[in-house]
């Protein structure tokens, strides 16, 4: 009897660990197919308001030191879109803007400008294109651009230049955008 209980207990543990491993796997999509992995959260205690519109501005100033990596702070916008769409929010209800400044400004350069400076095409280009196709706005700080020697024509096609990051952040927040900082 005791050995039967032990076998059942061990089998239960094995099943639980396999079930946990399967449920904890991140997924991409449904909005941004190649970026923005997110994890399912079963029965969250804080309920997501699926009927609300989401106006969000991401303040992105940091970049990774490695020029061949995607900036994870930019990818956060893909995760935001994917996890909310996967949980019942229509992508048309999500209005996202990324205000890029500081070291992160180099991450939104065109492939040719990025290659000229780093020797490789911009690894963020596919992410920027997919986010822009989903309606995400990219705004780069004009002060950062001038300070770092970037001309307006060197940025990816979907990137607009503002007078400053401060100007863009205040303007968007005055329009009801919630600020998420990194």
Structural descriptors:
6 helices; 5-stranded parallel sheet; Hypothetical Protein Ychn, Chain: A; alpha/beta; 182 residues
Descriptive overview:
The chain has 182 residues and is an alpha/beta fold. The chain has a single domain, classed as Hypothetical Protein Ychn, Chain: A (3-Layer(aba) Sandwich). The protein has six helices and five strands, in the order H-E-H-E-H-H-E-H-E-H-E. A five-stranded parallel beta sheet has the order 4-3-2-1-5, with helices on both faces. The longest helix has 22 residues. The termini are far apart.
How are the secondary structure elements laid out?
Layout: H1 2-23, E1 54-60, H2 72-85, E2 94-100, H3 111-118, H4 125-133, E3 137-141, H5 142-148, E4 159-162, H6 165-174, E5 178-181
Parallel strand pairs: 1-2, 1-5, 2-3, 3-4
Could you estimate the helical fraction of the residues in percent?
25-40%
- N/C terminus separation: 57 Å
Strand content: 5-15%
**CATH 4th-level superfamily:** DsrEFH-like
Per DSSP E runs of 2 or more residues, the count of β-strands stands at: 5
Choose one word for the global shape.
Answer: globular
Ranges with pLDDT <50 over ≥5 residues?
4-21
- What is the C-alpha radius of gyration, as a whole number of Å? 21 Å
Compact overview of the structure:
This protein has 182 residues and is an alpha/beta fold. The protein has helices at residues 2-23, 72-85, 111-118, 125-133, 142-148, 165-174; strands at residues 54-60, 94-100, 137-141, 159-162, 178-181.
């Amino acid at each position: 009897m005791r050995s039967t209980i032990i076998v059942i207990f061990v089998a239960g543990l094995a099943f639980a660990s396999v079930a946990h491993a399967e449920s904890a796997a991140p997924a991409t999509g449904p909005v941004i197919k190649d970026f923005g992995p997110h994890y399912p959260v079963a029965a969250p205690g804080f309920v997501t308001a699926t009927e609300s519109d989401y106006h969000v501005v991401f303040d992105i100033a940091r970049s990774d030191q490695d020029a061949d990596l995607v900036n994870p702070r930019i990818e956060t916008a893909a995760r935001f879109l994917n996890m909310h769409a996967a949980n019942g929010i229509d992508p048309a209800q999500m209005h996202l803007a990324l205000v890029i400044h500081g070291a992160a400004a180099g991450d939104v350069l065109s492939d040719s400008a990025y290659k000229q400076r780093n020797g490789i095409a911009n690894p963020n280009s596919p992410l920027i294109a997919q986010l822009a196709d989903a309606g995400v706005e990219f705004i780069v700080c004009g002060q950062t651009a001038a300070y770092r020697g970037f001309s307006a024509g060197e940025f990816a096609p979907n990137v607009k230049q503002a007078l400053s990051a401060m100007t863009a952040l205040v303007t968007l927040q005055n329009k009801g955008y919630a600020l998420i900082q990194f």
